[in-house]
Amino acid sequence: MYWIIIDNLNFNKPVSIMKMRSKLIALAAVAMLVAGQALAQEQKPQKIGTLNMDYVLAMMPEIKSIQSTLSTLQTQLQKQGEAKQKQYQQLVVKYQTEGPTMTLADRQQLERDIAALEEELNQFTTTAQEKLSTKQAELMGPINERVQEALKAIVAEEGYTHIFNIGVPQAGLEILFYIDPAYDVSNLVLKKMGIEPPADSQN
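Now predict its structure.
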């Protein structure tokens, strides 16, 4: 499954307006598909192709809408978290400035309030991140299925035995050092989904 990167929420320091990164990545280092029993026969020669998932996903018109939706949700959650963080900081400042002169009962109550709000803030941060991840999975599900169906069709039609993703280097290493661009199926996948690749596309 492939994903859009979303920034982690952090309410413990000043946060600027967050932007969705345009970089689209594949979680899998290598995507390998087998066309079927006929292609799996040992007497058949292997036909290896490549797929640039960064490129394919970036070309899909749905991605912009998904990015916008996730960015809006992220901004909403960020504002809620910042409001809770501000409230927490106000209580801490009150404790630091007024605590020494408070009665023991009032000071202990304020300590409980601070502890409770800190727990609430931590829980909100976790829940907010889960909401973002869930929403992303929901929105990207149909996209992943569409790409996979197109890729399966290309594999069957063109007789590929293996397809490698070349969109993302792993640990500083390219998945493939070199392969003839003629074997890259990225544009075939786009066309299978009804998306016209750029005229100057080389892959």
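The chain has one domain: 2-13+24-192.
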